[in-house]
Fold these 2 entries.
Entry 1:
Amino acid sequence: MLVLFTVGYVGYGRYLSRFVELDNSRETPAHKYQDGQEYVPAKKPVLLGHHFSSIAGGAPIAGPITAALIWGWVPAVLWVAIGNPLMGAVHDFMALSSSIRHEGKSIGYIIGEYIGERGKNMFLWFAFLVIILVVAVFSLLVAIILDAYPQAATASLLYIGLALVFGVWLYQLNLPFLAGTGVFVAGVFASVWVGLQFPIALFEPSGFADEAIVLFSGDGMWVPGAALFGANTATWILVALGYAFVASILPVWVLLQPRDYLSSFLLYTGVGGTLLAVIVGTFLGTTQGGSEALSIQLPAYTGFFGGDLVAVAMPLFPLLFITIACGTISGFHSLVSSGTTAKQLNRESDARLIGYGGMLAEGLLAATALAAVSVIAVTDAGVDGIAAALPNFAEGGGLILTSFGIPLLIGEVFMALVFVSFLLTSLDTGLRLGRYMMEELVGTPESGVENVAANKYVNTGLTTFAAFLLVSSGQWEELWPLFGGANQLLAALALLTATVWLANWKDTKQLLTTGLPVAVMVIITVSGLLWLAIVENLQRQLLDAAWRAEAGTVELISSGLRMVLAFALIFLALAIIKMAYENLTEARDSLISTEEPAVGSDDD
């Protein structure tokens, strides 16, 4: 995988940079529209940290390990290793490049430039629905990990506090960048030790958790969602959503930039350290279990319809490709690239490292997740089924790090903090992007209703509340595939936008680089969403009398909502694809016809 990614960055990444004609003499939107709020030029390592943390989140951890537990580790590795440099990294790079050529505007705005206001609005509504799914799913993932590892809860709170102070250090006090990096990165790693000494839980934790300092007495069943998830997990969902709401409306320098920069060190250490530890532990053994060498405990391939961890048949095609929602290709990245990153890019040439290289790094995170879960033996559905994949990432990562002599518990807490830090990043970045989309949909407010909709507190609050309703009515296993399908279909639309941009730019621009991935992803995602809507929700739930008899009102509404949402996403996507195809063919015909007279005049 490392070889494929290196060849991809050096060869294909360089080709793409020339293909879109990156030029440092052009003024980037960050400089042209600098406002101290959203358009803020950032040093390359700081912006790489923000971008990497925002796109990585928890999805490249949750998706690959879930897929490996269902179908085996070989299909998961192959999809990440091949799809990432050929589709995912291309997607991220093209989204970032097209945005900086359109004043740092979103992908929705860009496609609207070519296919009209109706197409733009349809795309923005599509992306807005995906954002709600992102916030819902990631808030649940945060809560599951903090419930399983109370030590990581303490470390996460300290990490957020350190990021706030680091923002003041850099942007208000103008203190040295390198010195601040040393002090605050050391503080982030020290927070793991503090978490080990003072693990906290809001209510009595469940599942994998050891003893913790419980902050609230009682069973907490009054907390919304407690009956479904347990009081501690349900309360952490509320805390995560509240944090995301506050963080998403703050200026980017207050928390977003410094937090993402600090969290990138967690990711670099977690990914690099784990991959190196896998090599050491495989050949020299670990300090756990009598210096036994690391070995893969998961089967390479469990079968087309999944193994023992799933209660119902789950076909590898198309579900594998939407289960690994990140790590290979992710539409959410296009929203980050064109929503926040493009507004902070210092030079055009930085797009290669941040766009293409950042996605390759996420592929390495997915590989790390696969390695971590592969060394933990999970052979049946007795421990919460595939939901066990989430805490097992930290457990497996901790076991791998014992190759360096790091105690198992310290390694587990560190890996849990790595997981949570990126989930939190995706949460508030997602809400911020949702706010941008709503503002673009409203445009210049001309009525009282539009003024309210454009208000950042109101629209961010409504998005947060919608995500809360969705997460409170469904399990992670039910929400995740829907998020994955919607996310991958968004990736197809972002690549389609880049294809339309190229077609309108020059008639000499070849379209296979972006067009071929569009076709592949549309086939995969539409098939996946149809399976989820028709088989998973309609056939196995709504039309099943036994299921309906046991389901409550909330479960019935949730299943119907997920089915309707899947069909709505398919409809919006196909309508956008139709409009984009019409523009693409017209643009090429127009460019060719306008060049023909020039050729004729030369001949004369």
Entry 2:
Amino acid sequence: MLQYKAPVMDMKFLIEDVFKYYKHYEKYPEFAEATPDLVDAILQECAKFCENELLPLNQSGDKEGCKFDNGVVTTPTGFKAAYNKYVEGGWQSLSHPVEHGGQGLPPSLGMAKQEMMGTANWSWAMYPGLSHGAMNTIQSHGTQEQKELYLTRLTEGTWTGTMCLTEPQCGTDLGQVKTKAIPNDDGTYDIVGTKIFISAGEHDLTENIIHIVLARLPGAPEGTRGISLFIVPKVQVDQQGNLGEGNKVTCGAIEDKMGIKASSTAVLNFDNAKGVLIGPENKGLECMFTFMNTARVGTALQGVCASELAYQNSLLYAKDRLSMRALTGKKFPDKVADPIIVHPDVRKMLMTQKAISEGGRAMIYYTAKIVDEIEMATTDEAREKADDRLGFITPILKAFLTELGCESTSQGMQIFGGHGYIKEWGMEQIVRDVRISTLYEGTTGIQALDLLGRKILLTRGKSLNAFSKEVLLFCKDKSMISKNPHKRQMNKFIWALSKNVANWQQYTMRLALKAKKDRDIVGSASVDYLMYSGYIMMAYFWAQMAQTAYEKLATDVENRDFYRAKIKTAEFYFERLLPRTKSLAKTMMADPKTLMQLDQDLLSFL
């Protein structure tokens, strides 16, 4: 059976020491209640809920899956009871505005909650998780009436929300959306069309589901310029928020999937379902990006969650499984063999998992502070500045952390050997569950094109230059002996990091010049460029964690082993994982002709 203990100590290390959340919270009067004592209590209680209520449903939910019967979806045994406890505990309302029934705590704290929930049981966590994007979209683009009508129930968790983008004929290319919105005299719209791959699109956990739907108005322009956004409830709602008749939204099927089997992925048919417009006409895709960016950061978190769960169970297994003797001599002579954790190759896999899990968590928690800044911005300038930072980081987080999540879980299966392939141990489920993370909310290739094409080349590297400046200022500050008593220990991180950042800027400039002559260079280089960027970005956060660990070693005697482990993991990352940038640099700069020169008719001779 899978084991999980929430890594509260590591989470508090990032919150309190590395990213100094409490100093950050002091800037916003609305976050006055987010004191260290309260945050600690929330982390501890959330850990108990996730370990005791959600984890036991992880493997059983995978085995049972969701049931579909003539449009009705039943979640696995125990899911509804756990959801009711979640709502009763006020967990859904944790980081949402007080005016809609929320507790008004920071979104960054909500991200920590999501991490624990997602690690304990990703399939279950998707049901309330999709609601956050729906709520953010309504909060950002809805009318006051729409906010009052929908946000309170979504905030308390008695209703959930979805995003309905994809259709049978189109995936990422939303310009092909065919769903129609036909205006009615009363200001509503009849929504007609079919949406597929709708996570949590139908279930039995709540009395209503609020669908955020992309559709076309009559006479709308072709392509993405003619898409509008609509709120379409499963059950119709009157002006007082009371439930009325069922809307003409039916679940035609749920997908038989590779993983996340306990999360219902629905085919939804809209047969003149009543909806209301949210945001301006033909600006639906722009409004939907509020939802999509929320979902993409959440999907990046899935990579970290899967890596953490795989690592914890791999470590337990490696300490217990006996096989062969250490090459340097017997370590446990009283046993028939040594535990496999003594073997360097197993240690390399474990350290890779640890570096990915903790480095990924740092990347997420850094980003969560930016989300706070966007939510609390009081001027358009401040909001735009923070949004630009988030827009640059999001595709890297989404693609890089999910790809590394797949690597980490695969390493976990390798550590387990043949037992990793057996359902009983749970490792094969983690591998199956995390695989979707590289696909939904935009595949790795799509994220890479967004990063290199839109966020870098179209802006002439504006966001990259700003992030690079931040990293280089950190390097300069930590290399000054007057300010940094740990200069000697930090040099091994600072020199490598500053060199990589300088190379990052140079390679970006060279790619921009190449792209002017051959646009195929963007497509051929983009994925390698994104991964290259991700390794450097994660190196920045490992350097910060190492610096903080050195500082804490001087004052915190009780937790010295924790800080020493953090420094040694940083050393492993810089020695074993960061050098991957060298091969990625070579491949991303390669001429695309080797990809495109072979005629498609010659790809096979079958």
